[in-house]
Write a structure and sequence with these properties.
alpha/beta; TIM Barrel; 6-stranded parallel β-sheet; globular; binds zinc ion
Amino acid sequence: MIVIVLTTILAMLGSITLATSTFWHRTSSHVVTKTSITRHAVVSIQTSIPVQKPTPSLTSSPKHVPVLGYPIFNGNTHLAEIALTFDDGPNPYYTPQILAILQRSGVKATFFDVGYLVVDYPNIVRQESKQGNIVADHSWSHPRLTLLSAPAILSQITAASNAIKAVLGVKPSFFRPPYGAMNRSVLAEARFAGETTILWDDSAEDWRLPGVSFIVSKILRLARDGAIILMHDGGGNRAQTVAALPIIIKTLKNRGFQFVTIQQLAEDLVAPPSQNAYSSILSDAKISLTSITQLLAWKRKVYR
Ligand code: ZN
């Protein structure tokens, strides 16, 4: 069990570490200044502990899912369901191709959209939602949030949230920090904004363009009950992702997996058994989650 968890963590951390390179800088063409981000009043903090029945019910309307103060790396590991997630869009070239594949396959996914791109391409965001996908928050301008102050982190989250609300009429319930970079402030501000932080446990670093067969084989190798798959529909050339997606979907369907949105995955989630350990870590001012070593130790403690 521990070996499996650690393998998952290492895979995830590998993604995070590699994602820390030049990816966004090389691909982002917008200049976003702090003045374009406004602060907003935020929703109340919820303190209830999530206890959901682990029964998938794909046809029911969305249930209320408590906002969590800790990140979700995967869903219920006893259900044959997998969540496809796409970061860094909307992108006018690749996102429509991915939406077409999802629609053809009858699959719903989750799009972690960047706020300023939501403003630029609202019609794509509408299409994401119209097809039954979940639109979620990936910050306003994709900075490394761990380098920002708490108010600046909150601004990044709420500015993107408000951009999504302006297009869809509802605020997102889920947030993914750019590069997976997080610390206590990031988690706390996301929760304060009413959004649960979602990470992943299955990635092939598709943004590095490692080749279609590499993307397919690595994603399939890491796929398991409750997996959250990270792919990218924006931020650069995503032709390999577009090519890999139909193979991934078909193979995982053949293996008996059901594709769910992060909303559904969260509804089906059983609360991690060591939430109290997590809470005590979060309240310990001396603990920083910014280094890989500390993050490993922290996650090992939380998900033991
Ligand atoms: Zn990203």
